[in-house]
Amino acid sequence: MPTSSTLHPVSTAAVPRSTASMRVIHILKHCGYANGNVHVAVDLACVQARSGYDVTVISAGGTFVPLLEQYGVQHVVMPHEQRNPLAILRAAWKLTFMARKTRPIAIHAHMMSSAFVGYIASLLSGVPLITTVHNSFDKHSVIMRLGTRVVAVSKAEYDKLLKRGYNRRALCMVMNAPDQSPRDGFMNDGRVLEVSSPCIVAANGLHRRKGVFDLIDAFATLTTEFPHWNLYIAGEGPDREKLEQQSANLHLQDRVHFLGFLPAPRSLMEKADIYVLASYAEPCGLSIGEARSAGCAIVATDVGGIPEMLEFGRAGRLIKPGRPDQLAAELRTLMSDEPVRNALRAAAKSGSEIFNVQRLLQDYEAIYLEANKPSRTPATVQMRHDEVA
């Protein structure tokens, strides 16, 4: 399994580590719910602060500000929407002043406009810029190559960015790790979920890239054969009304349940007999790490970083995207055979500790230290854990 790590050999021996001197500035447009970029950035900032780092998060604000403050992370309000060039320049100047004054080990950008602001500040202050490419499918993600170090969130993403012309000497990898997130307790709204078993669960944004239309089509072909199964879909998005209409047209109103945005999906995953992610593009879906840690039997599409997260089929079933027929076939096998389903649950759980959020601390720390070495020249590609199959 391509667990996680930089793809460069990183030795921290040359740069003695002292948490007291580890000062980091994270920059992102906002820190609100329901955005994977934000969730990763907030998790990382919190575990760093918990470890003794001096951490600052710059954003326009959002629902996670109280959580950041709870962990001792300083939050600075600094809007920098790309549609507002003046705000971008103002933020870049403020960040430059902050970086010159506090001398952080890194400025870490998690969104496109944030990377541009960070790049200007990095040039003027001499502080390395780290960019994490969360959404390579976005055409504006090319801005992320401005980083001193550019982090891909899976080996598949690493290879894709190389093909797009990203600098191999700057590119490295850290796989996302959402389990035991500091957000879990903070986001739990106390809702008691009434779920009828047996059931299939999906938890993702409701937009076409996530393949929920395919999931409903696949489920529709199985409802007569499996009359006691239900489908629960957690999430919000622009396609919710269309998805509800699709379910109504298929006469599935009583079998397909839309739960809306669920801040803490772990409790739903723990009730699932099968978890499905039918995405068309997924650099490193947080929900797969969460579902594995919850011990779900997983069916997901063979796109982006998903195969790595499922150990190329050992820890979950893989299908082609946009193929409801293949999805239905895999679901039929699991729905009809409880021992097979339970074996897949055990396989998902086994090895899932790699998705513990604490692992992000050491992986990103190695990148920060490497970026501060005088040569800033990584050597050959290697993994710190298992080799990629």
Structure description:
This protein is an alpha/beta fold and 389 residues long. It folds into 2 domains: 19-177 and 357-371, 3-Layer(aba) Sandwich (Rossmann fold); 189-353, Glycogen Phosphorylase B (Rossmann fold, 3-Layer(aba) Sandwich). The protein has helices at 36-51, 65-70, 85-102, 112-125, 155-163, 183-187, 212-220, 240-249, 266-271, 286-293, 306-309, 324-336, 338-349, 359-371; strands spanning 23-27, 54-59, 74-77, 106-109, 129-133, 149-152, 171-173, 199-203, 230-234, 256-260, 274-277, 298-301, 317-319. The radius of gyration is 21 Å and the shape is elongated. The N and C termini lie close together (7 Å).
Break the fold down into its secondary structure elements and pairings.
Elements: E1 23-27, H1 36-51, E2 54-59, H2 65-70, E3 74-77, H3 85-102, E4 106-109, H4 112-125, E5 129-133, E6 149-152, H5 155-163, E7 171-173, H6 183-187, E8 199-203, H7 212-220, E9 230-234, H8 240-249, E10 256-260, H9 266-271, E11 274-277, H10 286-293, E12 298-301, H11 306-309, E13 317-319, H12 324-336, H13 338-349, H14 359-371
Parallel strand pairs: 1-2, 1-4, 2-3, 4-5, 5-6, 6-7, 8-9, 8-11, 9-10, 11-12, 12-13
